[in-house]
Amino acid sequence: MNPSLLIVLSILAAAVALFTINKPRMDVVALLVIVLLPLTGILTVPETLAGFSDANVVLIALLFVIGEGLVRTGVAYQAGDLIIHHAGKSESRLIVLLMLAVAGLGSVMSSTGVVAIFIPVVLSIGGRLGIPMSRLMMPLSFAGLISGMLTLVATPPNMVVDSALRQDGQAGFRFFSFTPIGCIILAAGVIYMLFARRWLNSAPTPRKHTSRSRRSLIDLVREYDLSGREYRMRVLPHSPLIGKALKDIQPRRKHRANVVAIERSGKLQKNIINPTAHTELLAGDILFVDVPTPDPEEAAAISEEFGLAPLPLKGGYFTDQSREVGMVEVIIPPSSGLIGKSIVEAEFRSEYQLHVIGLRSGSTSLQDQIMERKLKAGDMLLLIGPWKAIRKIQADSPDLLVLTLPTEIDEVVPASRQAPLALASLLVMVALMVSGLVPNVLAALIGCLLMGLFRCIDMSSAYRSIHWQSLILIVGVMPFATALQKTGGIDLAVSGLIDVFGKAEPRVLLGSLFVFTAVIGLFISNTATAVLMAPIALSVASHIGASPYPFAMTVALAASAAFMTPISSPVNTLVLGPGQYRFGDFVRVGVPFTIIVLLISVLVVPLLFPFR
């Protein structure tokens, strides 16, 4: 092993370790790689930055925009409505329709985005039918992962492997090259989940309270145990609070009380004000106060100390003010910048104009010290504030994913009338990709321009929809393939595989590549895994004189087979909290299905892509 290869492997090992602990963020690690590799002299600066000019990187960015157009026009949500309509009261029918819908949508847009859209749909359906969330959320995540196996553009690993083929002088895959295998795996996944759901927790769901397609404010109040915490108080003329800003009062220090809204008399009518740290209180203001540890004596003490007069309440936890004040349930995604911060440190009131009134971790609703608790991926928060702020967080918040919008909010998507035009734009893109009339990246660009022309999406939304962290990660990991090629690392890995499995039939090599890829995918992202494994797969094929296509396809499928742990994919992490899962649930259900996917890949891939 030469010194240059040792340096590359050391940098790679360090990057993998940092990817595993996710400190610093993966895109930051990728940028460090871009800086370090040229400094070693192993790669030139143009070689290190080549990923920025890769057509598939641009294609991935454009597909984020296409997916956002489908969300903004309500196409994705309409799919959920169809499931509700056709599933009836059958749990089996619901699982089949859910997995087919998620896989279908995920074949043309981000699987993480699709799963995020369908989580509230599944919550409402499960609550209506009394089905445990644990029996629905895992089929949802599995379908999201399988969607990456259905088309060329379904997931970045497919495009990474396709790019490696083209750089090797091959023709690359076509749009539907993955579809026959993906459909077989999807069918196997549906059948498997109809049986495997019995292995999951079957405790009755606590969400039987509503027959509507979405929960109401009252439902959220009940689930987060907010009853009795709300107080309505008038600021009396002699109150010491008059003329003071909320930041100067800070009653939370002593009583842990928070003002979530203020009713103030205007010239013609009373107005509901969203309080900020700089809001000054006036005599006659009516304060809507949240006290996390409700106690009549505590309320009396607050009233006496601050010159407030208690007022009667008309609705549970201010639901009588639902025209002005709303609630939203959100989940912390794995890529959120809020992870590791407390609610106080995140400055929710200043950043989002919303106040945190509830926190759930898994199935537990936390009551004590929620403001100081460090946030984790999968935590669910209940926020209260004006509907305008809630709509803003729904449209533009990379650190929070909306889980539940109560029935009180107007169900209006920004561009609902453009839904047919969004579908038409999508079909044009797919038709161009299938026909091969233009390169895939141009087909996607045409689709994006049509979305903009038909006002399915605006430029601001288009730029915000692109997941830049994923793109930087891809670009930063790509130089490793070149570095390993130049230093002999690829040849070393291939020699090892050939020494162990070289005398066996090619299907054994396919199986070993699948296992190797799937195991690496447990620790780093599936995209990074594909970047590292694609050149190894092509070299193995070249070494034994076989076609590169079955080996490239196997690596792509294995990179998407992240079923085994809740942290092996953002899709799994998203359903961890709503499904109330433990780590072992994914191992118990995911490992057998990964073996099924392995067997299907080894048996079917060579039939569609012969070795010779």
From TrEMBL:
This is TrkA-C domain-containing protein. The chain crosses the membrane at residues 27-45, 57-75, 95-124, 136-155, 175-195, 426-454, 466-484, 513-537, 549-568, 589-609. It is a multi-pass membrane protein. GO terms for biological process: potassium ion transport. The lineage of its organism: Bacteria, Pseudomonadati, Verrucomicrobiota, Terrimicrobiia, Terrimicrobiales. Pfam families: CitMHS (PF03600), TrkA_C (PF02080). Keywords: Membrane, Repeat, Transmembrane, Transmembrane helix, Transport. GO terms for molecular function: monoatomic cation transmembrane transporter activity. Residues 218-305, 315-399 form the RCK C-terminal domain. GO terms for cellular component: plasma membrane. Its main location: membrane. It is found in: Membrane. It comes from Terrimicrobium sacchariphilum.
